[in-house]
Amino acid sequence: xxxxxxxxxxxxxNEKLQQIFIELTLKEEQEEYIRxxxxxxxxxxxxxxxxxxxxxxxxxxxxxxxxxxxLRPGTVTDDTFLEKLNQICATHQHFESRMSKCSRFxxxxxxxxxxxxxxxxxxxxxxQVEGFVDKNNDLLYRDLSQAMWKANHSLIKALFPEGNPxxxxxKRPPTAGSQFKASVxxxxxxxxxxxxNYIRCIKPNDKKAACIFNEAxxxxxxxxxxxxxxVRVRRAGYAFRQPYEPCxxxxxxxxxxxxxxxxxxxxxxxxxxxxxxxxxEEEFSFGxxxxxxxxxxxxxxxxxxRKQRLEDLATxxxxxxxxxxxxxxxxxxxKCQIVIASWFRRYA
Length: 348
Description:
3-stranded antiparallel beta sheet; 2 domains; Alpha-Beta Plaits
C-alpha cells in the first residue's frame, strides 16, 4: 500500500521490460509483415514508451529532476522535489498530483498532498514522496571504496574496483537512481542482442491457495500484461516464418521435383513443393525472403510428412544395403564354386 523510492525503481524496470516485450513481439512482428510485402491490417496496441520517457528523460524525466534536486545548493527536501515534479510534469497525461493545481485532481481525496501517482501500463500506482531525496543520495563515497579496496581478502577487493588509486575519479559518485538507470540500459542492450522467449505467469488468486480461481484478477493481469494485443496479432498473423533456403532444405524430400536437388531459386522450389503437397493457399503467404505459414497444424502436417518420408528413406537405404550385401556374398560364392569345380574336374 505504501510505495516509496524502491518500488518506484522496480516499476521503472518493469516498464522497460514491458517496452522491449512490445518492441519484440508486437511492433517488430507487424513491421516484418510490411517489410516482407505481406498484406496486413495494422492492429493498435498501447506503447508504454511515453511512460518510460516520463521517468528516464534526460531533461524532464523524474529521475533527472531527482538528481537535480540532490545536486542543487540550498535547502532540499522531498516537498521541494514534489514541487519541481508539479512544475514540469503537471500536464503529462500519466502523472497525477494534488499539488499540481490541476482541476482533475484537486478534489481527489484518494490522493494525499505528499504523494504523486503514475499511470503505469499495469495500472495506477501512488508513491509517497517521503525519502526519495535521501534514498537517491545514499552513495558510497570514495574513502570507503578505497578502504575496502585495500582489504587483504581478494573477493572484497574485487567488489570495489572504483577504490583503486590508479582509477581515482574526482567526480561526485553517481546517485542510486542514475546507477539503476545505467544498469537497466545495459540490461536492455543485452536483451536486444538476444532472441528472448517470454513466460507470463498469471496468479489465479491473491491467497496463494490451490483450487481458487479469481476471474476478475486473472482478467486484470491479462489486460495489463498486453496479452490481448499479442493474441490478436498472433491470430491475425502467421504462426511460423522461415527463409526460403532452410525451408526448402528441410522439406525438399517430400516432392519428387525438388528431391534430391533443386537447381532453381529457393522460392520457386518452395512454391513447387507446396503446390505438390496440396496445401491450401490461405494457409501460407510468400514474402520477399521468407515463407509465412498461418496455422500451426500446417507446420505439424509438414513435420509428420517429413518424419514419414525419413522413415521411408531409411527403409529404402536399408533395403538397398541388404540387397547389395546379399548380391556381393552370392557373387563371391559363385566365384568360389567355379574355382572349386574347375580344380575338381582337373583331378577327376
